Amino acid sequence: MAHIRKLEGSRWQARYRNPDDRREVARNFATKRAAQDWLADVTASFVRNDYADPRAGKMMVGELAAIWFAATAPLKPSTRHSYRGLLRKHVLPRWSDVELRKVTTSGIATWVAEMSADRSASTVRKALGVLRGVLDLAVADRRLSINPALGVAQPRLPLQEMRFLDATDLERLADEMPTERDRVLTMLLGWTGLRAGEALALRREDVDVLRRRVRIARAVVEVSGELFVGSPKSHQARTVALPTFLAEMVAASMPTDGLLFPNRVGEYLYETNWKRRVFDPAAKRATLTPTPLRVHDLRHTAASFAIASGASVKAVQRQLGHRSATLTLDRYAHLWPDELDALGDGLERLRTPAPADSLRTPETDATVIPLETRR
Hints:
Layout: E1 3-6, E2 12-17, E3 24-29, H1 32-48, H2 61-70, H3 77-95, H4 105-116, H5 121-140, H6 167-175, H7 180-192, H8 196-200, E4 207-208, E5 213-216, E6 219-223, E7 226-230, E8 238-241, H9 244-253, H10 271-285, H11 297-308, H12 313-320, H13 325-332, H14 340-351
Antiparallel strand pairs: 1-2, 2-3, 4-5, 5-8, 6-7
Helix pairs in contact: 2-3, 2-5, 3-5, 4-5, 6-7, 7-9, 7-11, 12-13
């Protein structure tokens, strides 16, 4: 129940009971009208089901951030490592000792602008995403009625230049690899589009040479010098196709059991070590231009090969393990052949009447009336 009462002097007090614990909440105002408006807003929030207890909003952002981070335990170690760093370096230094109710959209926008002056757009967007996640939890816990981070504009990501090798360049790169293991790994990355962590987690039983298929069921990621094995990035297993020549290469170098690409002691290979000690020197010896070449560029190369072969958007999506065909198109739409000319010619044929000799059908001897004569 809500009440308004006159205090001594010219002040007015509005009161209501918190629906969660039935405790009374009161606030003083200079005028009766202001008290009535406040109670009306509170009542409307009950109806909209977005009521937030003003006392709960006194919690510090840093306190809730700790709870939010603890709830991310089921996520991949690499993701949690990223969140931990973003909280420590960017979010908590600014917001840790600020009450939730005092976090405003304008304050967040100012923080984003300040970060954008000396940090990359990617880092700023990730930091804002973490703060948004903390404030989402505040809304879910009824500590805030709305998330003030939702209306904040994010800096635009710069267009990332993609490097695509042709088949000859990929062969040159593979030929510069010091061992057959490294050569096969390079060709596998460049022709199938596997992520490096997915390829390094492959085992003998994942390969079906006869059907020319590889099963992607796990990935290995490196976090602070430690390796973690989990599900692929999309959290879904998939099967990718191998061209015959690549299936034969894999079969010829495949061990009888265990990992396809182990280190010297038969354990998982560290991608960072392989890149520094094997990939980068081989790319330099291959004199590929422009430089530098990234391991991830082999994934882009495989996408370009698949598209050039005539694969559909859905087929490329499945091969690369993208969450959606939209993501595939966003990244590689420019590689598909331009079909606008064919579309324009098709529309022209619909509008332009056929030659007179073709207007009779032999079966019915019926005459087709050209479009412009139909009035």
